[in-house]
Design goal:
This is Proline--tRNA ligase. The chain is α+β, with helices and mostly antiparallel strands and 480 residues long. It has 14 helices and 23 strands.
Length: 480
C-alpha cells in the first residue's frame, strides 16, 4: 500500500481545497455518489451527524419542540401560493414530471425547503389559541440543483439538515423563539464542534426570501472564507396569510398567526474539518468523535501479546464504564506506526500506546491528536482520561478563537479593503445601510455582508464605500 493510498499528500496551507477533499475521502467520512453533486455519508461521518442531532434534540425538547416528518415531494401549485418565496428557489429546484412512463399534471418539486408544505398542514391543525404555540422540527434532506462547484458537506445537491417551523399567537413570542433557537445553535456549535461563531442579522439583501428578517451565525474558515453555519428566521405573517394559518383567540376573534423557521445542515461537519484539521488529516473534537480513545497494543511475540491484550481489555473496560468511546486496533500484520498514522488521519482525539515495558512501569503512553503531545500516564491515573478529553475539547475551542481573531480585521479605507480582500478574512467595515453600496462592494470585490453583529450599530464613522454617515459595522467577507 503506497503513501498516496493512505495519508494526506498536500499541505493545508498550500492547497486548501485539495487538502479538504482528501481529508473527507481518506478519513472515510464520505464518498462521491454516482450522480454528480451527491455524496454518500460513511459511518464515521454519519456518527458525527447523529451526535449533533442527539444534542439538538435534547435542547429542542427542553424548549417544547417535537420532531415530525414531511414527505419530499411538493406540488408546484402549492409552492406558487407564496410566489416571492418560491421565486427565490425556482432556479435550484429539481422537478418530478413523470410517474412511471406517464406524465403527471402538476409537477412535483423535490423539497428545496419545506415552508409551503409545512404551513399547508399547519393551517389544518390550528383552529384556536389552545393549539398554540405549535413547534415542530423535521430531520430530513433538502435538494437544490448545486451542479457547479460542489464540495462534500459544504455544497451538494442533496444534504442532511434539520428545519424547524413554529407558530405563535403573538409577534413578541415568535421573535423570542427566533433568538432562543439562535442561542441553541451558537452554544451547540461552540460546545460540541469547538468552532467560534458570530451571531447577528443578515442584511435586507441577504435575508431569507419570505422572512421579515434573518438572524445568522457566521464563522471564518482557515482559508479566509466565511461560512454560514445556521440561520433562524422571523417570518412574521408572510406565510400565515397566504396559507391561512389562523387561530381564534379567547374571545373567538380570528387572527393570523406569527411564525418562525430555522435550520442547520451537515455543512457544520465541513466547518469542523476545515477549522481543526491539519496536514496529517482530520482532528476531531472529543464531544463528537465516533471514537474518543484509540488503544494500540504493542508486542513482538505471543507471550507479550497475551500480557498486553489482557491489560488493554482491563483499560478498555475502565474507560467504557466512564462512557468513553474506545477502539482497540489489534489488527494483525500492521505495524504500530501504521496504526498511529491511521488514527491520526481519522482524527481520534487521544491515543494510548501500551507494550510490555509500559506494563512493567505500570504506565501507558498517551498522545493527543490536536497538538500531538505525548506523555506518560500511570495505571492509577487512567480514570483521569475523561478529564483529559474535556481539556482537549476546551483547548480546541480556545485555539480556534485565537485563529479566528487573527483572521478578523477592522478597516475603514476602501482602497485598503480591496487590496486585502484577496487574502480573505472577516472585515469589520462601517456601512451606511444603503443596498446600493452593499451591491457595489459585492460587484467590485466579491465580498458581501455576512452578518450585522448584535451591538454593531455605529453612527460615528463614514461608510467605507460612499463616505456617508454609517449606521453599523457589519462583517464583510467572501464566502462559500
Amino acid at each position: 500500500m503506497s503513501k498516496e493510498d493512505v495519508g494526506i499528500t498536500v499541505s493545508k496551507e498550500e492547497d486548501f481545497s485539495e487538502w479538504y477533499t482528501q481529508v473527507v475521502l481518506k478519513a472515510k467520512l464520505a464518498d462521491y455518489a454516482p450522480v454528480k453533486g451527491l455524496i454518500v455519508l460513511r459511518p464515521d461521518g454519519y456518527s458525527i451527524w447523529e451526535s449533533l442531532r442527539s444534542t439538538f434534540d435534547k435542547k429542542f425538547a427542553k424548549n417544547g419542540i417535537k420532531n415530525g416528518f414531511l414527505p419530499v415531494l411538493i406540488p408546484e401549485s402549492l409552492l406558487g401560493k407564496e410566489k416571492k418565496h418560491f421565486a427565490g428557489f425556482n432556479p435550484e429546484v429539481f422537478w418530478v414530471t413523470h410517474s412511471g412512463t406517464n406524465e403527471i399534471g402538476d409537477r412535483l418539486a423535490l423539497r428545496p425547503t419545506s415552508e409551503t408544505l409545512a404551513y399547508t398542514m399547519y393551517s389544518k391543525w390550528i383552529q384556536s389559541w389552545r393549539d398554540l404555540p405549535l413547534k415542530i422540527n423535521f430531520w430530513n434532506t433538502a435538494l437544490r440543483a448545486e451542479i457547479k462547484a460542489t464540495k462534500p458537506f459544504l455544497r451538494t445537491s442533496e444534504f442532511l439538515w434539520q428545519e424547524g417551523h413554529t407558530v405563535h399567537a403573538t409577534q413578541d413570542e415568535a421573535e423570542k423563539e427566533v433568538m432562543k433557537i439562535l442561542e441553541i445553535y451558537k452554544n451547540t456549535v461552540e460546545e460540541e464542534l469547538a468552532i467560534p461563531v458570530i451571531t447577528g442579522k443578515k442584511s435586507e439583501k441577504e435575508k431569507f426570501v419570505g422572512a421579515v428578517y434573518t438572524t445568522t451565525m457566521e464563522s471564518i474558515m482557515p482559508d479566509g472564507k466565511a461560512l454560514q453555519m445556521g440561520t433562524s428566521h422571523f417570518l412574521g405573517q408572510n406565510f400565515s396569510k397566504p396559507f391561512e394559518v389562523k387561530f381564534a383567540d379567547k374571545d373567538n376573534v380570528e387572527h393570523f398567526a406569527w411564525q418562525t423557521s430555522w435550520g442547520v445542515s451537515w455543512r457544520l461537519i465541513g466547518a469542523m474539518i476545515m477549522v481543526h484539521g491539519d496536514d496529517k488529516g482530520l482532528v476531531l473534537p472529543p464531544n463528537v468523535a465516533p471514537v474518543q480513545v484509540l488503544i494500540v497494543p504493542i508486542y513482538k511475540n505471543d507471550e507479550g501479546k497475551n500480557t498486553v491484550l489482557s491489560k488493554v481489555e482491563e483499560i478498555k473496560k475502565i474507560l467504557e464504564a466512564k462512557k468513553i468511546r474506545v477502539h482497540v486496533d489489534d489488527r494483525e500484520g500492521l505495524s504500530p506506526g501504521y496504526k498511529f498514522n491511521d488514527g491520526e488521519l481519522k482524527g481520534i482525539p487521544l491515543r494510548i500506546e501500551i507494550g510490555p515495558k509500559d506494563i512493567e512501569k505500570e504506565s501507558i503512553v498517551i498522545a493527543k491528536r490536536h497538538n500531538r503531545e505525548k506523555s506518560n500516564l500511570r495505571f492509577s491515573e487512567i480514570e483521569t482520561i475523561g478529564t483529559i478529553l474535556d481539556e482537549i475539547q476546551k483547548k480546541m475551542l480556545e485555539n480556534a478563537r485565537v485563529k479566528a481573531k487573527t483572521n478578523s480585521i477592522d478597516i475603514s479605507n476602501y482602497t485598503e479593503f480591496k487590496s486585502k480582500i484577496e487574502k480573505g478574512g472577516f472585515f469589520n467595515a462601517p456601512w451606511c445601510g444603503k443596498i446600493e453600496c452593499e451591491e457595489k462592494i459585492k460587484e467590485e470585490t466579491g465580498a458581501d455582508i455576512r452578518v450585522l453583529p448584535f451591538g454593531s450599530e455605529d453612527t460615528n464613522q463614514k461608510c467605507i464605500y460612499c463616505n456617508e454617515q454609517s449606521i453599523s459595522i457589519p462583517i464583510f467577507a467572501r464566502g462559500y
